[in-house]
């Protein structure tokens, strides 16, 4: 069916567009992850005279009718013609006929709110609803492997090594970052002339992951302030010549460019056994935090899936993942499943901590967390949401306490202590073992959800 056939007989009666203030409010509501408030605000912005409750069936049917008669809605469907379009491209093409789009801080926010209304709208009868239109959203991401950064004192840009030609690649190096303290710098291997130009990335990665002594890390830092365990040096942003020490001119002796002040760990420290060594962060001493910057596709996809599954906007949590390799597909399925569960658990902990869990000791927090989510979920929902993928086989029976979980059955008794202990252990790990890693580390670093020892008890123990 063409757009003309779809809108046949639908006279345009609505012309409203969200204002700048309304667009800002829509963006705020989308970040707060409150679907009902977001939809009600969007309906009010696009249809000021809409008098129905957009959440119930009658309101969703009426919303579909109103959309048929909106000028901007018809323009969007006529433009896209049932094909895939970037939202930014829609805003650019329709700005000719709707100049108010140019005044918005982000026209994509407004157009996305219209797509949200289209997705929410329904046809049919109350109790027997059908989709108004099928809306498909595609998110394209590129694997950030072999990520390198330009050596520069002012503007450091990141690129994929494969995108650079031979001349450009001479000014880029891999990047190392500590997730615990945030220190970031370039990393390379110096040749016999003390030049850091990267000639072979494969050889470099082999040396780095063996924690080889040939690896040199260079962290941008002024020589005015000394850093323990590091020596001052300079690197040329054009030819990547490295000069140890702070004496002499700032200009490169090879090409004359102004060099960048850096600090080099000396000696570079490692931890672990001979075959499993890791670099130790020279700034904070972290034994697990230092790593090369980059992102593989499996991690990218798992993070996206986790966020979609944790969002309240997602009311149909299903995922299809495709791969051209059978073994790879099996591996990724398990990886996605594990990561999605962990992200959901952390989100639940964050929500409980924000609402009523702040200020509790760890024992009370663990028990309160179990009680809180029991009150907000049925037994079946509680088990299916919090059961770890590695525990889905679990069978436990002791007296009146029993639960058994397989793909086809869920039996759970609220007085079960075994599963509660499993969740409590995960909560314990979130605040102690994993409190600065990944999503948990983000909450810790921003102060949103973190554990701290009780000062009075610490002082009492110290004085004893």
Q: Could you give a quick summary of the protein structure above?
A:
By secondary structure, the protein is an alpha+beta fold. It has helices at residues 3-6, 20-32, 35-46, 57-68, 71-80, 87-94, 107-120, 166-169, 201-209, 297-310, 326-357, 362-376, 379-386, 418-431, 438-446, 455-463; strands at 122-125, 128-131, 147-150, 158-160, 172-178, 184-189, 215-220, 230-235, 242-244, 260-265, 270-271, 278-279, 290-292, 395-398, 401-405, 410-412.
Architecture overview:
The chain is an alpha+beta fold. 40% of the residues lie in helices and 15% in strands. It contains 16 helices and 16 strands. Strands 3, 4, 5, 6, 7, 8, 9, 10 and 13 form a nine-stranded antiparallel β-sheet that branches. It has a three-stranded antiparallel β-sheet with strand order 14-15-16, covered by helices on one side. A two-stranded antiparallel ribbon has the order 1-2. β14 (395-398) and β15 (401-405) form a beta hairpin. The longest helix is centred in the C-terminal third of the chain and has 32 residues, at 326-357. It is globular, with a radius of gyration of 28 Å. It starts with a helix and ends with a helix. Residues 395-418 and 438-446 have low confidence and may be disordered.
